[in-house]
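Attaching the record inline, Q. Sequence:
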Amino acid sequence: MNTSNPPIRHSAKGQQTKAAIVDAALVLATQLGLEGLSIGALADIMRMSKSGVFAHFGSREELQISVVREFHNRFEQEVFFPALRCPRGLPRLRQLFENWVRRTSVEIDSGCIYISGAVEFDDRPGPVRDALAGSVEIWMGALRRAVSQAVDEGHLRSDVDAALLSFEIHGLILALHYEARFLNSDQALPRARRGFERLMQAHLAQAQTV
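Structure, as predicted:
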């Protein structure tokens, strides 16, 4: 008798259940923040016992970290990886920003873990803050590389400060989120796109055109 199949099925089912819990937790966290997560609330949503939910994570902190990781994974899938299909340099940088803008426009209604998490954990050292900061640093590193590649390809001027330009691009996204979500401005999205184009125009290599 083959005794290996039942444990494999059990493991797969356990992973599916954990993924479903993380998915529900992510929805809850975008609405209430990471601090709004609770084992009890998720147990109600999942129609599971508290102990059943707890068994998949071991602690509320590990649940929060799992949510941060899942948010980061989806961010990469929607923003970063699709842009890699574009040629290196300015085309890829433009696509990164456009993908980021599109995702942010959705998060205006649902909320952004990176932004809300920064407010919740900015002065609270620990594993959750480390997970949040690490995810943001990974993304900002990818953005800086995209800017540097645009310089290397001759699309942007050779004296462009990649860290500074990335900072300015990030500022456009934060302003978009703030104005659209908090101030309910219907001009935030087109303003962010115009702001990006002005940045690119200001840093274009002499032979390039927008």
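The two ends are 68 Å apart (CA to CA). The CA atoms of residues 59 and 85 lie 39 Å apart.

More tomorrow.
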